[in-house]
Amino acid sequence: MLCAISGEAPQHPVASRKSGNVFERRLIEAYIAENGRDPVTDEDLSTDDLIELKTSRIVQPRPPTLTSIPSLLSLFQKEWDALALETHTLRQQLIQTRQELGTALYQHDAAARVIARLSLERDESRKALSRVSVHSSPAVTGEAMQVDSTGLSQDLVAKIGATQEQLSKTRRKRGVPDGWVTSEALNSFTPIEKSKVLYDGARSFAINTRGDSALLGGKDGRVGIYSMSDKAIVQEMNVGHGSITDALWIGDRVAASTSTGHVRIWENGTELADFSGHAGEVTALALHPNGDILASVGVDKSYIFYDLTTRSIAVQILTNSALTTAGFHPDGHLFAAGGVDSQIKVFDVKNATNAANFDSTGPIAAMSFSENGTWLATAANGSTIVSIWDLRKAAVLHRIDISGPISSVEWEYSGQFLAIGGPGGLVVQQYSKTSKAWSEPLKIAVAAVAVRWGTSAGALLCLDTEGCLTTLTTKAINRV
Question: 287 pairs with which residues across the strands?
Answer without folding.
Answer: 294
